[in-house]
Specification:
52% of the residues lie in helices and 8% in strands. By secondary structure, it is α/β, with parallel strands linked by helices.
């Protein structure tokens, strides 16, 4: 039940009415009396109660009250006089009970108060993002939205415009949840919501308004970074960020159509400038606009790959008014994040400077990587390189990108937050990894170091090996050796397309693992395809307990599941995880026409997977989670990184399950990743 925002519009909604009637035995037709009483409730009670509440509630009280249940005793003469009169009497009683609850001001699990309807809706949206809205009694009015995905439901709430999309956006910003909401939306959703914020504005932009809002938008833009990425796919999310920031200072801005025009064009100009091949190209473009030579500016923009840039360039030329210096300053503001993305390193970020990163959550993995002696492993792999320190940094960056998932490579590859995490300082990750000569890497040393770190963690009990052949991207086969006992990956090597070297690779992998554990008789299960290939006398001598993986309906399978402490279904999931998880980590095809060395990809998949598994084990109840589930619920979202007096402060993103991180004491830590050479990283909880 909820009184509506203002006294003249008081509303009461009864979500569910349950009536228990005590009717005298002398009543000639009890069912008819019940039917007519129900009609009074359905047709009149809410309206009459609202009228009474409007008379007693304070003027201008916009509160929204959600009351789980309310018991009221009504009386009725069996003659059933005028239905409206009865409803008025009952409405007064019901209003009195509601008013007593409201006047008392006490909240509990059954009585909730929100300052106004927009605050109520904003809380609903934020609970949707956090995955805790469905099934809550105080959100019953939104039940029809539950057939949609959470993302679609959020979009629907904004586009209903009750209250306006602008008011809802401002309230979500005030409640500190804007970034988590934007992270849940697609670019198409953001575009629709941004348009809805200006749906009622139809005036033609005035020159005076354009001048005014250009200055304000640039001022707000430079006051704090928008985000790390500047790809055009994020344009309308950034539009909402700018709009929300401006609304916090200019609440009436949504009525001014020039503001929308300015935001659209400045973001469009950012897209064009970010295509620039060099500072010289940008200077040439700006000088052409200063001279009002739109033909030359169009030619430069189109040559760089811009699509239909005419409107944007004409807009900016008009704002420049021939002043190339002003144009250069404005372009520097727009390109701020782009320059950070390409050239920012831990050495160049200045004291007190902050930046936003969509992948700041990667810092949560530092401890897990150190658990694997990560820095030592990479140093051993890069020993033969011309510049071992630079190669180690490149390989750290490579590992971090794998942890974040192959689907996010395009956005994460040169993200400044990931750069600060890894210490990679090259101009472009794609360019740097393309120049890396994988033949110079000490793969055997790296694999040995990795296996030794795994053995040190599980030295008391030998592994239960499972050897299988899986497919990487585009059908490239690889041999995967796992420890089923602890659900760890121990070796991962590519094989020839026809599988001709599978036997030799399997023998090498098993010998490597046996040597690491200093044991000759480690039990090993082989998939059927591998069992048929690997029947060499050497392996039979080395692995006395070599057998084929039992089928699901075998008694041996039940015994294996029991030995591992799993159900048959859980065992099946664990077996299937190899083929299922490998594509998450693989970066074999990071761009058209460019292919990584398969051995490089497989080896660093081992390290990334071990780090994600170590991280998962620190979260109670999530040890068996897939890497994608871990990313979406614990690492995703926008975070802030700032240098402070010799250390880095990382404000972690408001991920959907950040509460679990807090319970695991992972949010508030001071860590010293071994590759940061003594520089502390302070992990801070998300902003409320």
């Amino acid at each position: 039940m909820k009184p509506a925002p203002v006294q003249d519009d008081a509303r009461v909604t009864v979500g569910r009415w349950r009536g228990v009637y005590q009717i005298p035995a002398s009543c000639p037709d009890p069912r008819d009396l019940q039917r007519r009483a129900d009609q009074i409730v359905a047709a009149h009670l809410s309206r009459e109660c609202a009228v009474c509440l409007g008379q007693v509630l304070g003027s201008g009280d916009a509160s929204v009250w959600r009351i789980k249940d309310l018991a009221v005793n009504f009386s009725l003469e069996t003659g059933l006089p005028d239905a409206v009169a009865v409803a008025r009497k009952w409405g007064q009683q019901l209003a009195t009970e509601i008013f007593s609850t409201v006047e008392g001001g006490e909240q509990s699990d059954s009585v909730l108060r929100y300052p106004n309807r927009v605050a109520y809706l904003a809380r609903f949206v934020l609970d949707l993002v956090a995955g805790r809205a469905k099934g809550k009694w105080h959100y019953e009015e939104f039940e029809e939205l539950y057939i949609l995905s959470d993302r679609q439901a959020i979009r629907a709430v904004f586009l209903r415009c009750d209250p306006s999309a602008v008011d809802l956006l401002s309230e979500i910003l005030a409640q500190g949840g804007l970034e988590s909401v934007l992270n849940a939306l697609t670019e198409d959703d953001a575009r629709a919501i941004f348009a809805a914020c200006f749906a009622d504005v139809t005036d033609v932009p005035s020159e005076e308004g354009l001048e005014k809002w250009t200055g304000i938008v640039l001022e707000q833009w430079v006051s704090a970074p928008l985000r790390a990425a500047t790809r055009h796919e994020n344009r309308h999310r950034d539009a909402l960020r700018l709009l929300a920031r401006i609304l916090s200072k200019f609440p009436a801005a949504c009525t001014d159509i020039p503001l929308k025009c300015v935001i659209d064009n400045l973001l469009g100009l950012r897209d064009i400038l970010s295509l620039g091949y060099s500072p010289h190209w940008i200077d040439s473009l700006l000088n052409s606009l200063a001279r009002c030579d739109l033909d030359q500016a169009l030619a430069l923009a189109i040559e760089a790959g811009a699509y239909d840039p005419c409107t944007v360039l004409a807009f900016f030329a008009e704002r420049m008014k021939g002043d190339a210096d002003w144009g250069g300053q404005a372009a520097a503001v727009l390109l701020g994040e782009s320059h950070q993305q390409k050239f920012l390193t831990s050495k160049t970020i200045s004291e007190g400077e902050s930046l936003l990163s969509s992948f700041a959550g990667v810092f949560l993995l530092a401890g897990s990587l150190d658990d694997l002696n990560f820095a030592e492993c990479l140093d051993s792999a890069a020993e033969s390189a011309e510049n071992p320190a630079k190669v180690s940094a490149l390989l750290r960056h490579f590992t971090a990108l794998k942890c974040l998932g192959s689907s996010r490579f395009q956005d994460a590859a040169d993200d400044p937050g990931v750069r600060l995490f890894s210490g990679f300082e090259g101009p472009s990750f794609r360019e740097s990894i393309g120049k890396l000569d994988a033949q110079l890497l000490e793969f055997e040393s790296l694999q040995g170091s990795f296996l030794q770190s795994m053995k040190n963690r599980y030295e008391l009990v030998p592994p239960l090996l499972f050897v299988e052949r899986i497919s990487l991207l585009e059908g490239i086969p690889a041999l995967l050796v796992r420890d089923l006992m602890r659900d760890e990956w121990l070796d991962f090597v590519p094989v020839a397309a026809d599988g001709s070297d599978a036997k030799e690779r399997a023998e090498e992998s098993l010998k490597r693992i046996f040597a690491a554990w200093n044991q000759l008789e480690i039990p090993a299960l082989l998939s059927e395809s591998i069992f048929e290939l690997v029947q060499s006398p050497h392996l039979k001598r080395t692995a006395a307990k070599l057998s084929v993986l039992p089928r699901k309906n075998d008694q041996d399978c039940a015994r294996l599941a029991s030995r591992l402490g799993l159900t048959l279904d859980q065992l099946a999931d664990r077996i299937a995880a190899g083929e299922g998880q490998a594509p998450y980590y693989s970066l074999l095809r990071i761009s058209p026409g460019f292919a990584l060395h398969p051995g490089l990809d497989c080896t660093f998949t081992l390290i990334a997977r071990a780090a994600m598994k170590s991280f998962a084990r620190k979260l109670f109840g999530f040890a068996a989670s897939s890497p994608e589930h871990l990313y979406r619920n614990f690492l995703a979202g926008l975070g802030e990184i700032r240098r402070r007096e010799g250390h880095l402060e990382v404000r972690l993103p408001a991920s959907p399950l950040s509460l679990i991180l807090r319970m695991a004491r992972l949010q508030e830590q001071r860590i010293s990743p071994s590759w940061h050479k003594g520089t502390q990283v302070w992990l801070l909880p998300p902003r409320e």
